[in-house]
């Protein structure tokens, strides 16, 4: 997907091939995840097969791409950011496995395949999620270390995003909001936590792996936060405009579960407008990188225009 990167302060407009970038980064991430995880044959094989089943089911790898892109925007290396990109993907996959369970969203399909509990049973699916969450901390703890940020900083970053004040808080509010009328402010609270928190954790970790400055870290936070909010609005729009085949998961679930979404509260057109505004805010946050964040800019544009 050739995109012309001009918004984020590039002095000379040039085209950026996001498709090739994503294919390349996804391959790197997949190889690294394969190295970090216990082999599928490691005892007890069931749990390792279940962890790998969901991890390699064909996710878009957006959080790792954001992490690696943030590192590159700060002049860091992909190799230094790679373990943290993998840690975030493990947490994301755990959250999807648990979200699909009968006690939560009760879904049969995810990433175009049967959900984890449909293949391995509920007990193993819960444990596969738990094991992926734990795996993320092992991967982060084994990193080689950074001069400006300690292991404690990095681990705290992940605990904050995944804990009961962010990711889990968002999921709790989402569960409690089902079938109830909620205001736009409460919906934003949910989106900030269940979606944005892990996205800006990804960009921040990428920056930290590159020893970014405080100003760069703030820019990456603002960028990830706004991209995260736009991402969830687009996700809600796709839920009502796309088919299950297109999405690789059951479409139309939000309406059926009477979930509060932007399209339900403000309508489709206004939701699209808000997603555009948020993406523009994200572009604005990248100015500090003076054209070195073209991959982040292209990713934000891709996430806004995606159809799955
Ligand atoms: C169970 C602790 C716990 C949290 C669940 C992640 C989550 C919170 C719920 C999943 C459903 C949902 C709407 C999450 C918001 C984030 C989101 C849209 C996830 C889907 O991310 P994609 O599209 O998925 O990047 P792939 O499969 O491509 O990685």
Small-molecule binders here are:
geranylgeranyl diphosphate
Backbone shape = globular
The total of helices stands at 15
Unreliable runs, pLDDT <50, ≥5 residues?
A: 1-6, 9-13
Class by SSE composition: mainly alpha
Strand content: under 5%
Q: What is the arithmetic mean of pLDDT?
A: 93
Straight-line N-to-C gap: 15 Å
Task: Give the neighbour order of strands across the main sheet.
Answer: 1-2
**Biggest sheet record:** 2 strands, antiparallel
Give the helix proportion (percent range): 55-70%
Determine Rg (CA atoms, Å).
19 Å
Order of helices and strands: EEHHHHEEHHHHHHHHHHH
The total strand number stands at 4
Task: Provide an overview of this structure.
The protein is built from 15 helices and 4 strands. It is mainly alpha-helical and 308 residues long. A hairpin with an 8-residue loop joins strand 1 and strand 2 (14-17). The longest helix has 28 residues, at 214-241. It is globular, with a radius of gyration of 19 Å. Geranylgeranyl diphosphate binds next to helix 4, helix 8, helix 9 and helix 10.
């Amino acid at each position: 997907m050739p995109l012309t990167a001009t918004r984020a302060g590039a002095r000379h407009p040039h085209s950026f091939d996001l498709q090739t970038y994503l294919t390349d980064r996804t391959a790197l991430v997949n190889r690294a995840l394969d190295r970090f995880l216990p082999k599928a044959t490691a005892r007890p094989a069931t749990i390792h097969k279940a962890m790998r089943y969901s991890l390699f089911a064909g996710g878009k790898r957006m959080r790792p791409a954001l992490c690696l892109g943030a590192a590159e925007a700060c002049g860091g290396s992909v190799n230094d950011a790679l373990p943290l990109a993998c840690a975030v993907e493990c947490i994301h996959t755990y959250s999807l496995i648990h979200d699909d369970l009968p006690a939560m969203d009760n879904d049969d399909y995810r990433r175009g395949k049967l959900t984890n509990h449909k293949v391995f049973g509920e007990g193993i699916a819960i444990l596969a999620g738990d094991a992926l969450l734990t795996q993320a901390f092992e991967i982060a703890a084994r990193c080689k270390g950074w001069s400006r940020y300690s292991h404690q900083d990095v681990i705290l970053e992940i605990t904050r995003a995944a804990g009961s004040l962010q990711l889990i808080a968002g999921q709790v509010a989402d569960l409690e909001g089902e079938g109830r009328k909620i205001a736009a402010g409460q919906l934003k609270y949910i989106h900030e936590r269940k979606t944005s928190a892990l996205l800006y954790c990804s960009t921040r970790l990428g920056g930290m792996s590159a020893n970014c400055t405080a100003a760069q870290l703030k820019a990456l936070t603002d960028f990830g936060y706004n991209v995260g909010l736009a991402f969830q609005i687009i996700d809600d729009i796709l839920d009502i405009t796309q088919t299950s085949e297109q999405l690789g998961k059951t479409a139309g679930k939000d309406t059926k579960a009477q979930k509060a979404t932007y399209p339900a509260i403000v309508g489709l057109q206004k939701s699209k407008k808000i997603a555009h505004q948020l993406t523009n805010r994200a572009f604005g946050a990248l100015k500090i990188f003076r054209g070195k964040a073209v991959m982040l800019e292209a990713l934000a544009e891709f996430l806004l225009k995606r159809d799955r």
